[in-house]
Amino acid sequence: MKFGYVYETGKRAENEDALLFRCSLLSEGELWFAAVCDGMGGMKNGMEASAFCVREMEAWFDRQLIPCICTCGKHKRRLEEIIRSKGFMLYRQMNRELFEKMRMAGTAMGTTAMMCILYKGRYYLFHIGDSRTYLLGRRNFFPCKQITKDHGNERGLSRCLGLNREWKPDFYSGLIRKNGLLLCTDGFFRKYDKDIWKRCLDGKKLKCETGIGKRLKEIAAYNIRQKEGDNISAIYMGGEGG
Fold it and tell me: How far apart (Å, rounded) are the C-alpha atoms in residues 16 and 13?
């Protein structure tokens, strides 16, 4: 498996996005975990909301996900049921705590929240907000598939954590094989250019962490040249490059 990321402030003074990547070697194979959160509610509050969720997700990974997989990792259907159930409980708890923080502070505070688990050739994905996950082809980016559905439009988000009661994430699962997954905030994909993405995300060039990071930064730099005003963050996890 290959991993790389980009985390760019862009034209903003601070980065309200928060990223997380973890990898553990279990008896049945490698367990990969990544999260991308895009905070909202002004700089300080957005940073606090996204950072809070990433901390909670990391604690969940250590205290619940690893023990869960060690207990029932051989039973795929049972494993998916438990991951889904425990993941929904996590999102509900994060939303409650963010809502309470917002109430105590008397100001808006929210975040998109996307986390992805890779284990034994399958992905398990939780998503709320307008960040996105794409499934990338093994040898070339195209054709690609946007897995997640955006929870919002030009007028704003219809679902996120913290700002309202619509806390339930979408849940997706499927085979990854030797494909790749790209998790990214809206600042990364909003200035999408087919030729740039195709050149930078060609599977033959995504061979190591340094190379993947370099390609993702090329996309970020292009977005900045196109006057993207938001933070630009993304994580790539994938199979064999080339």
Answer: 10
